[in-house]
Amino acid sequence: MVESGRIGGGGDGGIDWIYLVVNDRVLSLVEPIEVSTLPRGVKVELLIGQAKVSKKWDATVGTKFVSTFRDLFGSLSERSEPQREYSSDLLRASDNLFKFWIDSGEKRPTFTISVVYATMGGSPHKDVQDSINIATQTIGDIFSAEANGELLGAKELFELYSNRPSYDSSLAYVEELQKGDDKVALIKLVDYYRFLCDKDGKLNQHFFEGNVRDYQGEVSVNREIATSLNSGLADCDFWWLNNGITILVSESPISRSKKYTLSDVQIVNGLQTSHAIYNWGTKLDPHFDANDDRTVLVRIISPSSEGVKNNIIRATNSQTPVNKASLRGTDQIHRDIESYLKISGLNYDRRKGYYKNQGVDPRDIISITLLSQAVMAAFLEKPDTARARPSSFLDDDDRYSKIFDQNRSLNEFRWAALCQKSIDRVLLGCKEYSAAERNNLKFYVILVIRMLGGSKEIGHPKWDPALCPNDWMPSDDEILQAARWVDSIARGMLKDQKEDFAVDKLFKGPSLTPCLKNSWSEFFKECKNSEE
């Protein structure tokens, strides 16, 4: 997604990037944006800017912004062909921006614009600031929107780079038991609620980075926790009814006047309880009952190594049903994949339910299990295993290590994720296949697509997934062509079988992949002919 907004190069009109942020979600202007799904009053921000490695500021940057936007958009109501030549990337982005601006009018959007100029320089001269101010006002006038300009020098860029949420906090306690460097303590509910809040009173979401699941919402367990909290003063304390919280810290907690100082807080167990306490506290704050002395049990542990940390996470989350995929999600490789896929606009659901709870479109979310199946099918050439045993290879350490090999490029995970999501989208829109047929085909299709990319790269048919470049993605037509070919081969194999032969058996068994491999040259020839 970051790459999609970059312009740069010849014909960029002085613009290095252009993005739309819709309801805090970055959208690409590479393709038209579907407006019909947006809610009324949607919040939209247009981000444009230029960045230079140079330590010098250039006062003409703002002038170029003004010239380019006037040429591309004019007064919007009388938009005409631009007078100068621009790159295809900029023209495509400006056309899609114009279409979005027109179509979104009925949604009554709150439209703002941010104009940014960044260099590695020190404090800019006044004429640079004046230039950006004029550009900001002009662009805002064109779109009849509020606009803000910003100059970012080396100091500001470093501050942005260094800025990260604080994982350090303090926590008051009532009673404690200590063994070595670790603590078990009773914390007043109101104190734990305040511990969970950031300076703006919002939930400290980054405390839960190490948790295997996100908040599960109004499930029965959470309703029972809420009932316990809302029952007020009772004959039994809250901690009697609850399993408590596990917090991991990087250093042994420092205790002063019955208050802990905690470093690098990670709440790895008790997320459901924590959310329930936060929701309870938000409704009461600041009118808490002074006589409410109920407490929650909190374990504070400073593990000696990353391995010990992961063992604690697995153990404390295995006392209630949690699938192996979720427990695997705490491994460093999944954190790396999550960060890497965000660049392409995909959200890796290593913490089950996290992105759903953030309101992210399901089409932009991929689970650990689905990514595992895609890699198993495309790179290990095991679509039958991916289809038949979707999570068994996450339970098997040997298979797991082959899929999430530390030496596997993050580009390969990215390719598998993007390609599998495209395949799912195309097959879902194809009316000729039922849901069961789509489930049978999808992992064979990604294998075929991987081989097709490799064969196209070298110009002749060769069955080798390593040949496919990771920046090559199939068209919708190529995906459909692959699906129909796999389907035709499967039907041919089933033709002479008994009537009660289950189609699923073929797709879950080992015989279909060799048949596809033996017929590969025919399919590649078919693809070449369709291109000509």
Question: What does it look like?
Answer:
The structure is a single chain. Helices cover about 45% and strands about 15% of the residues. It is built from 21 helices and 15 strands. The chain has helices at about 60-75, 90-105, 125-145, 155-160, 190-195, 220-230, 270-285, 305-315, 325-330, 330-340, 355, 370-380, 385-390, 390-395, 395-405, 410-430, 435-460, 475-495, 505-510, 510-520, 520-530, and strands at about 15-20, 25, 45-50, 110-120, 145-150, 170, 175-180, 180-190, 245-250, 255, 260, 265-270, 295-300, 345-350, 365. The chain has a five-stranded mixed β-sheet with strand order 2-1-3-4-5. Strands 7-8-13-9-12 form a five-stranded mixed β-sheet, sandwiched between helices. Strand 10 and strand 11 (about 260) form a beta hairpin. The protein is globular and about 80 Å long. The two termini are about 30 Å apart.
**Distance separating the two termini:** 32 Å
Contiguous helical run count: 21
What helical percentage do the residues reach? 40-55%
Shape: globular
Mean pLDDT over the residues: 85
Main sheet makeup: 5 strands, mixed
- Oligomeric category: single chain
Task: Kindly summarize this structure in a few lines.
The chain is an alpha/beta fold and 532 residues long. The protein has 21 helices and 15 strands.
Keywords:
five-stranded mixed beta sheet, 21 helices, alpha/beta, 15 strands, globular, single chain, 532 residues
Q: Helix and strand layout, with pairings?
A:
Elements: E1 17-22, E2 25-27, E3 43-51, H1 60-73, H2 88-103, E4 110-118, H3 126-143, E5 146-152, H4 154-162, E6 169-172, E7 175-179, E8 182-188, H5 189-196, H6 220-230, E9 245-248, E10 254-256, E11 259-262, E12 266-269, H7 271-284, E13 295-301, H8 306-316, H9 324-328, H10 332-342, E14 347-349, H11 354-357, E15 365-367, H12 368-378, H13 383-388, H14 392-395, H15 397-403, H16 410-428, H17 435-458, H18 476-494, H19 503-508, H20 512-518, H21 520-531
Parallel strand pairs: 3-4, 4-5, 9-13, 14-15
Antiparallel strand pairs: 1-2, 1-3, 6-11, 7-8, 8-13, 9-12, 10-11
